[in-house]
Hints:
The chain has 215 residues and is of the alpha/beta class. The protein has a domain at 9-16 and 84-204: Rossmann fold (3-Layer(aba) Sandwich). It is 33% helix and 22% strand. Strands 3-2-4-1-7-8-9 form a 7-stranded parallel β-sheet, with helices on both faces. Strands 5-6 form a two-stranded antiparallel ribbon. The longest helix is centred in the C-terminal third of the chain and has 14 residues, at 159-172.
Amino acid sequence: MLDVSKLPSPLWVLGTDTGVGKTYISSxxxxxxxxxxxxxxxxxxxxxxxxxxxxxxxxxxxxxxNSLPQTNIITExxxxxxxxxxxxxxxELEGKPITLDMLDEMLAWCHRPVPKGAKLILEPAGxxxxxxxxxxxxxxxxxxxxxxxxVVARGGLGTLNHVLLTCNALAAYRWKNxxxxxxxxxxxxxxxARGNADxxxxxxxxxxxxHAPRP
Length: 215
């Protein structure tokens, strides 16, 4: 089980792919942190919705999965794009490609101070290599912020390859990796996740968690 007390703030919650449970884990961390301090959740690039208040938006999901008072969690969304695609593809489909100046503005947006005593979670769109603009994947763009991360992945088949590729990419860009979180609830892979976690620990020098394992 993920121990959020060991996680630093600010923190990126990254994924090995789209739909692996980044928002679920972001929400879990946010609501655990919110028991003791205000929390700010930032989503610099949101695709696949019409607005940040859309029921399908990640900011809405972060607020809505727990009964804790929502006033202790602040959600902020940067660029919103309607197509459920990478930011690069979604922006081009809308006729407004993401420029270098826009990326610089989003870096500054991510780096804004939070209220005194608050903790900060950031969540990207898709996996770490998702394209933002020509020649610029997320990992290259976000490296300038020098914010540590955790990696969220499926529990079952394919996760070993995806996790190791993602962690190798982070290491190549000199990111601080706080650990890997396997999310077996996504694909009902509780038994496989435990075995995969054991194997990953033999390849990685970071903590590997199985979140909410079945007894």
